[in-house]
Amino acid sequence: MNYQGKIYRPWPEARSILIQTTLGCSVNTCTFCSMFDDKRFKVRDLNDVFKDIDQLRNYYPYVDSIFLIDGNVMAARTEYLLKLLDKLNSTFPECSKISMYSGLNDFRRKSINELKEIKDAGLTMAYSGLESGDPVVLDKIKKNMTTEQAIKGMEMAKEAGIKTLLSFIFGLGGKARSHEHIAATTDILNQMQPDEIAPMALAIQPGTVLEQEVKRGEFIMPTELQILHEEQYLLNHLNFNTFYWGDHGNNIVSLKGALPLCQQRFLNEVNAVIEARSAAEDRVIQTFSW
């Protein structure tokens, strides 16, 4: 496989085969992200992708899960995606899961019929970055998405039957806006009710706008206790069935399981860590680059 540039996939897709379908991200303006700063967004030539698929078939006798990279594969034309999914299904008939990145706005830019076609063609799950439900934070990080657009995108994905995982970031409101960020994020999650959610603690990526804001003192990093209180608030107020991927490597407490089944146990674990660290009230969270 001749992957171009830096390669990323969600941590729940650690065992998936990666097929590079797009280059870069169709948004690529988020101040906290440097994932695709080495390339401009482009949908790869379908014949080149097909060659990669055939090469993978020759290499792997059995493939159970496939993840399509780079960012926002759903931004490709529907006809392109249908041909791609058909090729994947015919080449890997044993495969039980095909997933991709999709911006919530990418759902909005297709019709319900198009989304249903894509789902029926074999898309199992889409990963979307919510980041925050706080309009102030969304504007600050240059997500190029409003909360209304996020809700509409999720509504369309649900109507089409596309299973969706939403990721968001503890601490993205900084020290000053921690409560507003998590309260609004929890509220919008309760409205959207995604099939799965994946919270991760804020990590400052080298070379990002946010890194410069931290250095200039314009963004004050949250404390460990603020991050823990955000997760505590979230677990106290989520009120729908979902799967919780709270085991990202940067999270203070590693939690993974179905909600509400595991919700009280998760909350107890977070509360215990808060009590144990209460003396370190001003300690800034320490995380590692993706």
CATH superfamily: Aldolase class I
CATH architectural type: Alpha-Beta Barrel
- Spatial strand arrangement across the major sheet: 1-4-5-6-7-8-9-10
Report the mean per-residue pLDDT as an integer.
95
Proportion of strand residues: 15-25%
Query: Globular, elongated, flat, extended or rod-shaped: what is the shape?
Result: globular
List the secondary-structure elements in sequence, H or E: EEEHEHEHHEHHEHEHHEEH
Count of DSSP helices? Answer: 10
Number of strands: 10
Q: Which structural class best describes the helix and strand composition?
A: alpha/beta
Oligomer: single chain
Please describe what this structure looks like:
- This protein is α/β, with parallel strands linked by helices.
- It has one domain (11-276): Aldolase class I (TIM Barrel, Alpha-Beta Barrel), CATH 3.20.20.70.
- Helices cover 39% and strands 17% of the residues.
- The chain is built from 10 helices and 10 strands.
- It has helices at residues 46-59, 78-91, 104-108, 112-120, 135-140, 147-160, 178-192, 209-215, 224-237, 263-276, and strands at residues 17-20, 22-23, 42-43, 65-69, 97-101, 125-131, 163-170, 196-201, 242-246, 255-259.
- Strands 1-4-5-6-7-8-9-10 form an 8-stranded mixed beta sheet.
- Helix 7 links the parallel strand 7 and strand 8.
- Helix 4 crosses helix 6, helix 7 (178-192) runs parallel beside helix 9 (224-237) and helix 9 (224-237) packs antiparallel against helix 10.
- It is globular, with a radius of gyration of 19 Å.
- The two termini are 22 Å apart.
- The model has no long low-confidence stretch (mean pLDDT 95).
